[in-house]
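Render this sequence as a predicted structure.
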Amino acid sequence: MMKLGVNIDHVAVLREARQVNDPDILEALFVACQSGADQITIHLREDRRHIQDVDVANILRHSKVPVNLECSINRDILNIVSDLAPQRATLVPEQREEVTTEGGLDVFNHEEDVAFAIEQLHDAIIPVSLFVDPSIEAMEKSKELGAEMVELHTGSFANLFNMLHSALPYSNHSVKDLELPRYKLSTLLEESLQNIKLSAQHANKLGLQVAAGHGLNYHNVHEMMKIEEIIELNIGQSIIARSVFTGLKDAVKEMKKLTSR
């Protein structure tokens, strides 16, 4: 069975744009849960650009489904997460200047900090997932560090898919490094999918649970459904974007239908 984690960060992005409590993040929580979300995912960033500390506390208090709290390995953030005690913490990389999380957590160059974070979260009885780029080496390091789960960063796959199968190349947001002939994009996309599949299979053999997320949408999510080792997808921006036209209830239900096995 595939679980759908609905990331509601972008509801808070819209709220923070005007510094008012509209849209209400708790209303988004309730609608997502009622519409089939198996999990709520939120990211407490160091700069608090969207989700705030009080949001996390309120969501944990009222959510009827497990909450997956994404966070950096910053010590102050870890202390907050340890006190709040979500059902799971997902360690992610974080840079102040980025628009969104770009790439997976570097578990090699930050090995000691990641190990410290996992130990602290485990002391607080919080299971840990690592948001990492798909590679055999990253799966093995994640297992070595003591994580229970990995979430495969699917951003590269999503960019390739969108450059090949959408109007992205004709927009202001075209990925410059991927402005390539279609045959080349097709080859790179197949390689990316194979890398995700092999990484998921290897993680599964190591005893790690496998999730995937970043850039997944209504057009490309079917590719993840082909990889049986992936048991959870965390999807946010595309669901919230679709909800502008359909309402959040229908947007979640549509994604839930696409991700049902």
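Summary. The beta strands are 3-7, 39-43, 67-71, 88-91, 128-132, 149-153, 209-213, 232-235. The chain has a mean pLDDT of 96.
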